Amino acid sequence: MGDIGGGHDLRLAFVASSAPSAQRGLKSLTGRYAHVAPEDADVIVALGGDGFMLETLHAHQHASKPIFGMHRGTVGFLMNAFDETDLPARIAAAKPIDLAPLVMTATIYDGTSVAAHAINEVSLLRETRQSAKIRVIVDGIVRLPELICDGVLVATPAGSTAYNLSAHGPVVPLNAGVLCLTPISAFRPRRWSGALLPRDARVTFEVLEPEKRPVLAVADYTEVRDVIRVEIAEDPANRFKMLFDPDHDLEERVLKEQFQS
Description:
Helix 1 links the parallel strand 1 (12-16) and strand 2. By secondary structure, this protein is of the alpha+beta class. 16% of the residues lie in helices and 38% in strands. The longest helix has 13 residues, at 20-32. The strands form three sheets. A six-stranded antiparallel beta sheet has the order 6-5-16-13-8-9, with no helix packed on it. It has five helices and 17 strands.
């Protein structure tokens, strides 16, 4: 059994993406089950894909409410299967997963800074046809004086199966205690494929030649353009709680990804 408890006494809030399948699911579930506003709920049920799950987690970050996602979108790695049957009991039996996000502090060319959290990854990407030139610093030590690339990212274990995997980074288990540092189309050094860092590492990216080679930073879906410096660290004080069916939990799915052909 999960530790949510309550069964049919659970107060549920339903939210959905704009996708037609999500909206149909929302109409059906709100017609079938009692529901309350998200701020009054014990659990928020999110209908959509992984992108909508990230949006929902960020939107309710400070309320510390668990999110139970059901797949009604395109990519559903972070979601449970959609099933309307006995939903309160299903949620009461769900397995909770606590995720510590990354916190990004991005400094823009004009000197202002923007902070944002990322559950999956923080990525730097070139803005123009020019390759980016980025200095990579880990815990105050310059590890790469100049990385010429399309971009570079730092991913959490939960995010290691997302953009990180597409950039040929490693998939790591949720409890591995590491972060993935992965280049995106690295030109120099050509053979550098990235690194695994301790979860308490502090990564700093300094953009070289920012006027000629502008770079943007993205924390999940928060985008900051024309950055000159980006600092990234895990933020253990902020936790995001997700709920998964016992036979469909996130830890097992991340582990399985290492064996996909």
